[in-house]
């Protein structure tokens, strides 16, 4: 599995990378602009991301804008909704408008409110079918 972790907070990026490292190859980006660049590059190199963990509040380009741009890049490359990257929004914002915008305007797969712990993220990855559920 290939993962792009997008967060302007060093601690959050590092923590997610530490949790996901045993399950995936992880790249990081510190803002939406870097995320769009990394996503486009991964597709060009035929190494697409399976998962993107995206913060919403970031400098340069925020998570909402970056996610819409990433979904547009997928459409340009003929990637169907069924095969597009899963996107978990990871944010401190616990707001119904942000949730609505992330899902319905941006095409997010799921939404986790920080602080995120290991159990929370691994449970979500199992639910999305990205890692096996050993209990099942």
Automatic annotation (TrEMBL):
Keywords: Phosphoprotein. The keyword Phosphoprotein applies. It comes from the Bacteria. InterPro entries: CheY-like_superfamily, Sig_transdc_resp-reg_receiver, ST_Response_Regulator. SMART domains: REC (SM00448). Residues 2-129 form the Response regulatory domain. The modification 4-aspartylphosphate is found at residue 55. PROSITE patterns: RESPONSE_REGULATORY. This is Response regulator receiver protein.
């Amino acid at each position: 599995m290939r993962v792009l972790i997008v967060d302007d907070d060093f601690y959050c990026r590092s923590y997610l990378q530490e949790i996901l490292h045993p399950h995936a190859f992880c790249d990081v980006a510190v803002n939406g602009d870097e995320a769009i660049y990394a996503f486009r590059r991964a597709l060009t190199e035929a190494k697409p991301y399976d998962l993107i963990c995206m913060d919403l509040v970031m400098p340069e380009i925020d998570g909402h804008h970056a996610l819409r741009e990433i979904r547009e890049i997928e459409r340009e490359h003929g990637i169907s909704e069924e095969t597009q990257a899963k996107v978990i929004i990871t944010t401190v914002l616990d707001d119904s408008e942000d949730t609505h915008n992330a899902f319905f305007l941006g095409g997010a797969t799921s939404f986790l409110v920080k602080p995120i712990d290991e159990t929370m993220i691994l449970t979500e990855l199992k639910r999305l079918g990205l890692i096996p559920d050993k209990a099942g």
